Amino acid sequence: MKIGILCHHTYGGSGAIAAELGKALASKGHIIHFFSQAAPFRLNTYSRNIHYHEVEVQHYPLFECPLYSLALASKVADVAYYEQFDIVHAHYAIPHALSAMLARQILEDKCSGQQCFRLVTTLHGTDITVVGADRGMQDVVRLAINKSDGVTAVSEYLKEETVRMFSPKKEVKVIPNFVDTSLFHRVPRPDILEQLGLGDEKILIHISNFRPVKCISDIIRVFYSLSQRMEATLLLVGDGPDRSEAEVLARKLGIECRVRFLGKLDDIVPLLSISDLMLMPSNVESFGLAALEAMACGVPVVATKAGGFPEFIVSGEHGFLLAPGDVEGMTEKAMFLLSDQERWSRVSEACVRQAKRYETALLVEQYETFYMKLLRET
Questions:
Q1: Which CATH code, of 3.40.30.10, 3.40.50.2000, 3.40.630.30, 3.30.70.270, is assigned to 2-178+359-376?
Q2: DSSP label at 171?
Q3: Which residue, of 70, 231, 259, 376, has the fewest CB within 10 Å?
């Protein structure tokens, strides 16, 4: 198949999944064309089956907002016309599915009414729970869903929210996020410990785009309480609007020397390999890919009973799930895991076994089946 993939290039789960999906499909012989403003951050490979198209946005004095959606539609239509795509897969309803819809209209006009590709839209969360929650955008999101040929969501939670909020005409199929356990697995990295100046202390980690929904200040507070009772270091990977507030809070609590803000990093396996616990206190999470990748590396997770976490994290078996905002409870569960090596090892091994149920090859096969079903319906 020839498949166009529309995605965000920025740090986050949707861009990671889009890039990993495209790479996996390319390795199976499919021809993949990526479209975004910059190369997706996980698109760190070379393949004769992978092509990348940068979408350049022209800025005109007459328009206050950049015309990315229109530029994307034009680029997709142009490439699809010559490459004859079978599928265009939009990751996010807004703006990608809408741009793909417009691209298809351009092609249908150019090709005398002939439909040139089937449109698949994957909902990742923000397009539903944030953009879709805006009353002024609800009809636009609903249109993007209903005009897609096939719609998937990354969790049962997100599917239920989509049905509740939009009553879509299209059936929403759940295909969860996935992890390549041949890449994400724990390996000894004494060199990383040395580079970071770390010793025998416990290492906690959090990876995200530091948006308000991630509750970064709760991570700092949990770590503060924990650090009063054991030697520990906190690694914060990523960046975003709440980083400055977190830095201020760490200084206020006097733990700034034990909290490392590492910024955005593509290769997180070395850091996960030295970590003992992941903290994910999000208010809501459509899936929680970072937690799954941590589990694949044998890192137990203390997270919230929010969104998609309960679908792959069994509390007490792979870590613990608590109510959002329960800083005291998270601290106690973190202590419980980190204070007993034998207990930690059992949970770590269970995490690895659970992650293997979400192996890339298994889920990519589901996407292939989904694509083929849509093409047979043409």
A1: 3.40.50.2000
A2: P
A3: 376
